[in-house]
Amino acid sequence: MRKEKKITSIVVLVLFFSLLLSGSVLAQEEERYGGTLNAALQMSVAHLDSDNSTDSMITAMMNHVYEGLFEFDKNLKVHPYLAKSYQVSEGGLVYEVKLREDVMMHNGQIMNADDVIASFRRWLEINNGGKLVAPHFDQVEKIDQYNIRFTFKDPYAPFLNILASPVSNQKFVVRAEEVVKEFGTDIIERHVGTGPYKYEEWVPDQKLVLTRFEDYTPSSRESSFFAGERIPYLDKIVFNFIPDAQVRVSGVRTGQFQFAEEVPREQYQIFKRNENIKNEIIYPDRMSMLIFNSSEAPFDNKYARRAIAYALDFEELGYAMIGDPQFWRLESALHEEGNPWHVPDAGEGIYGVYDPEKAKQLLERAGYNGQPLIILSGQDNQMERQGAIAIQDQLRKIGIEVKLQLFDRPTVVEKRSKPDGWHMHLSPFIKVVPDPQIHQGWTGTNKWITNWDSKDSRQMDQIFAEMLREVDYEQRYKIVERMQAELWDSVPYFNILDYSRLHIRRAELKNFQAGWQPFFWNTYLE
Amino acid sequence: MLFLKKYNKYKHPYITISITILIILVFLSLFAPVITDYSPVRNHPRDRLQPPSRKHLLGTDQFGRDIFTRILYGIRASMQVGLAVVILTMITGGIVGITAGFYPRIDKVVMRFLDAMMAFPGIIIAISLAAIWGAGKFNIILALSFAYFPRMARIVRSSVISIKDLDYVESARAAGARDSRIILKHILKNSASPIMVQATFNFALAILDEAALSFLGVGIMPPTPSLGAMVTDARSYMVVAPWMILAPGIMIILAVLSLNLLGDGLRDLLDPHLKNTIKN
Question: What element of type H or E holds B92?
């Protein structure tokens, strides 16, 4: 009898404490809610309709308001988001998507197949991502209120990746049917989405204000960047448009902003010494690509192009182009480590091999006559300007005469589109691409700035055509490996290194994840 | 030499200071390769952003290049541009000014054109020309000369007009001298002082504007050192490496200030109306 009493009292005690503990956890969770976040972004936007603009800023901000059927996680692996599950059948011709049935929209209605289909048709018509899909696409059908069937004319493997694309003007987001009907293909000015925040106010060139959507229903999946659970702790998010970097920095110093986008990398050590400021290095972020003009001698010969890869000391370039090694890393593959399409041994034997003697031999083999080579590059971007100067210096060291042509961006774009007048061009590429198919550099023989038209380029066309049709991941990965091997064999362009931008935040902003586009769900203010 | 005689008499402090600075600058730019062992363009990225030390007197920049060396070569470029612009403006401005001043018919047409040109600030003309012709030292020299010559022409013209009706010109003409002789022998010689003063100012202005053009990216192309371009590059490192911006900035100030002081001093010295204002 006494023993039983003892056990009972222990059980009661344990129960009592566990209750207390869970209560305090709940309270802690409760404490996270509230507050206004002021973020300083570097550029203003013209409007807020991501289907109608290539401005990545729009996508970044409106990711809080609109969500996709599919979203990417930290490693750029695609996960269902507003979709509950999906099924691919008939060799990649049919995609059946089941929607989540509990998704509330900002107009108080539950999201259903009609909203998705209306948004999808608009996306297909005007969005760049949609336009990529459209030629292969057949039709979209409503099976029932929460089931949709997408049918293709021919297999189109990158479909899901494009739907979730992190690149501006590609991602598919779900808008309310009424809004799509109201605006058609015009720029949408009334915003009804499914996201954790809803549109409140936009003052052009000044700020965008978003407030928490109280009836938001988060996804039940594990949270990782854009995929999984999103919890809106903050009451309000204010995106301020502050073009001057130093103003963004001082705003964070004084506490006016809790977050500032793209600040000078050189000040990293200074921020580090300030306990109120935390550095956020973005990775994956950018690549620095050296692009050859393959239509003009000497680079119409692949041995000459390969020679340049041997002639450059990439590590030294890293210091000259970017500086602090925390902000750059050598990477031969187009997709970073951790990404499903990462090819670890890409460029083996050529990437990062500094061998000026071999470079000279290859140049001789290519019949290089000692003519001065022209590097065309931008002068406003630090990577482009300093990279071009450093490449010139390195090539001069081994006796290759190089001329620099540094211009503002529009002039560079105009000059590089011409088949002559330049030999090399240094350009920043976005590392974060949805799919190897949509890799920024390749759009087909002679279609992009490399002016590449040869047996090799047509072989590359072939590889990309195969990649387009292959739905199976394993098989497709093998094609990607071939593509990388081919790229390093004929070298129409190559990645010198990956580099990162720097964001800063106040220390009181917690749980911030440094994504390729800044986002503020799951973050909270202390 | 009238100038030396006057200088000995008044010992104008502006002139003393400015000439001293100028001599140092010219010396530095002429003997740059002897003064320093470093190359102004060769990169050493691992030694980037080093603060001033015995090895690098003024530190290094973002490519690990010695800033002291780059400044020496930078002044050299500035001096070259300045000198070339002065010579070009003196020749073109002189010819246009004299013809306009001496022949009233031509004057009416030419001067209206120059008035129109002078309505634009020189730097705007220079920027647009440099943008059209492309960057590079030679193009900047042409662009700046084109921008500055109207002012020079105007100054020459006014002194020609005031001199050409003086008695000694009249007597020369009465004695049967040809126009060319009158211009060379009498007019040019007697309008030398305002031309010299303006030339000094142009020199200073050319250095400043070359820096401005290079700062904006339409000037001297990297990696050739230019003081203006060094300031541009230094801007993004200002907080972490202040020596990068201070050194070229101070150099620009020194060069421009000394030339302006020299110009002021010369004007005081050579202007007969201002003679009495000079204090010992």
Answer: helix B67-102
